[in-house]
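Shipment paperwork, digital attachment
Item: protein structure file
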Amino acid sequence: MKAKFLTGLVATVAAIATAFIGGTAEASNLKTSDPAFYDLLVNNYLLKSGGEQKALANYADYALNGNITALGSSVDVFFIDTSVATQSYALYENRITYNVNGGATQQAFNADGTNRVDNKLQQVDHGEGFSIGTTAGDILDFSLWTKEWGSKNLYYGADASANPDGLQHIVSYEVQYGGFNWLYLGWEDIQGGGDLDFNDAGIVLKGVAVSKDVPEPSVTLALLGVAVGGMGLRRRKTSA
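Attachment content:
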């Protein structure tokens, strides 16, 4: 799929692969360390559709086509969410999961073993982050585990053909900010497509590359001269 690129202050074009520059590990909570960036992620990516139950136009253009590959010894992951007041919330009990090189599936954001990523009890703190220990070239796969109405346990990943309903459930965007490139992923959690707003769960990654072009949305987050904090993240070494 041909990517849609913007021209901006620091926007760049990648014809074959989109390279994401790795850097110093971010603060453990992106919302508190860089609230301006966090708010932009919410408003221009998580809420790109315009809000809850508003379908994202041309969502197929933003499918994640290609592998997410680690560039170095760690990949930083941050949870992106907003308040119920702006009506971006999950209908079901949701958890973001991942694996490295097809290894064991692990739950993200599970410091106490119970956290979820919806706006119900035990919700993950907005902006919470952690580092996945990697080796350059590792392939990472992220999915949304959802429990619909307390009955079905389903996984929705980037490969639509492997999803229970055979439909797209992830959108992806390249985000250029503060001298670094990031990758944002957003999910739709309803089987059969639901409202297609893709705001039921969102994360942003740093320290990865994508094997094919990742489209940008209609706005750029390329803001200059912003230093992102570097308090170290708690690190979790994955078992391949």
